[in-house]
Amino acid sequence: MATESQPVDKAVIEEFKRRSGGDVFQPEDGTEYDEARVIYNAMIDRHPQLIARCDTVDDVIRAVEFARENEMEVAIRSGGHNGAGLALVDDGLVIDLSNMTDISVDAEERTARVEPGCTWGDVDGATHEDGLATVSGVISTTGVAGLTLGGGHGYLTRKYGLTIDNLLGADVVLADGRLVHASEDEHSDLFWALRGGGGNFGVVTAFEFELHPVDTVVAGPTFWPIDELEDTMRWYREWLPNAPEDVYAFYLIAEVPGEPFPEEIHGEKVCGLMWCYLGDPDDIDGVLRPAHDVAEPLFEHVGEMPYPALQSMFDDLYPPGDQWYWKGDFVHDLTDEAIDEHRRFADVPTPQSGMHLYPVNGAAHRPESDETAWSNRDATWSMVIFGVDGDPAKKDEITDWARGYWEATHPHSMGGAYVNFMMEEGTDRIQATYGDNYERLREIKERYDPENIFHVNQNIEPLAEE
């Protein structure tokens, strides 16, 4: 049903609102509606016909059935962080899961059951009480659902794999309104597809995660002057793949913001590393020494901290409501030619803009490429280039810089990208991302959503669809 929505009769909408357990917002609701359609990326301004804020699984089922029966386009919103704005759809129905925030932790079994409206900050707060954590991203306000369904990577990836490698099961409302449980033992084909296939296959109403003993970590940044980029990136490409799995460090290009950094380096263009070390804190000097040997740091602040403090370190720098444009790629090798392009674009246009190379090796390399929908098990890094600023007047500047940077480095990439780092980039790009898994994903899409009701996403078309 990949067609434009048609206006729904007011009497039908009123009956839907009466039967819904949660709030349902329409444009005539004014401020409440406008607040409900705000998402993380202020560059996105879409106007749904309805926003159904669900409180329960029954609400989700009613919303899916309503959309299907009334031939409405559907977008699914959890945390609202999607850079392309795929949590919203013009003139259609937004199924808003942000009120579904229950978390239960079984410390003995080292598992957590998490509803889709939770952020990773919510999860970290709940699991940290027992000295546990699972793999997530690097900003705690990110929603659990979107990050997980796209694959998920973060500070714990080299040690414990991708987020999907720690997913034990999921409850899913399908396009026909059925609620099913997907795991290795039930609907295993659906479970395979959920692990990296995005929101194509249904609305997940609960996730079950494996947890790991992570409490205090050693973390923080090392900054080098931007003129050290070529030397440090060449060193990094050789060092990172062979580093112990307790060591995580993503490479960054940035401008030093204000507080909490020293005033004398505010506004400096830098390259550097963001560390997370899971080993013995007494060993950190040896871990850092190779980075010090390659170039003298301009600034460094690495020390012990609770894992949730690391997870929320970027929250203030990237609050909701800024303008965002980002592009990503998977990278296997950092060639000399790619490093030259990174240096050419290293003069970031705004203090919040930059480039990150997130490691996706170590434990993430252990599964075969066909064990989950995420097929790029041989990637070393997941790269993201992001233009960000709070001023709408800088929209074109940050977009042009990010696009130009990506176009220059893309020929040196693996062709596909982490779907959560993609804008609306078309079928060819999605197919390149899933590679040999793409046709199987289409078959599963045909099985569970043959009418392509869930298509406001990085869409995988059903096999039968032309």
List the helices and strands and how they pair.
Elements (H helix, E strand, L loop, with lengths): L9 H10 L4 E2 L5 H6 L13 E4 L3 H13 L4 E4 L15 E4 L6 E4 L4 E4 L5 H9 L3 E2 L10 H7 L6 H4 L6 E7 L5 E5 L4 H7 L8 E8 L1 E2 L2 E10 L3 H11 L7 E9 L13 E9 L6 H11 L4 E2 L2 E4 H5 L11 E9 L4 H9 L9 E6 L21 E9 L5 H15 L17 H8 L3 H11 L18
Parallel strand pairs: 2-4, 3-4
Antiparallel strand pairs: 1-2, 5-6, 6-10, 7-11, 8-9, 8-10, 12-14, 12-15, 12-16, 13-14, 13-18, 17-19, 18-19
Helix pairs in contact: 8-11
| C-alpha end-to-end distance | 12 Å
Shape: globular
Rg (C-alpha, Å)? 22 Å
Query: How many separate helices?
Result: 14
Helix/sheet category: alpha+beta
Low-confidence stretches: none
| Overall pLDDT confidence | 96
Q: What percent strand?
A: 15-25%
* Helix content class: 25-40%
Describe the sheet with the most strands. 8 strands, antiparallel
- How many beta-strand runs? 19
Give a brief rundown of this model:
This protein has 466 residues and is an alpha+beta fold. The protein has 14 helices and 19 strands. Helix 8 (229-239) packs across helix 11.
Describe it:
With 466 residues, the chain is α+β, with helices and mostly antiparallel strands. 27% of the residues lie in helices and 22% in strands. The strands form 4 sheets. Strands 12, 13, 14, 15, 16, 17, 18 and 19 form an 8-stranded antiparallel sheet that branches. A hairpin with a 5-residue loop joins strand 8 and strand 9 (179-183). Helix 8 crosses helix 11. The longest helix has 15 residues, at 395-409. The two termini are 12 Å apart.
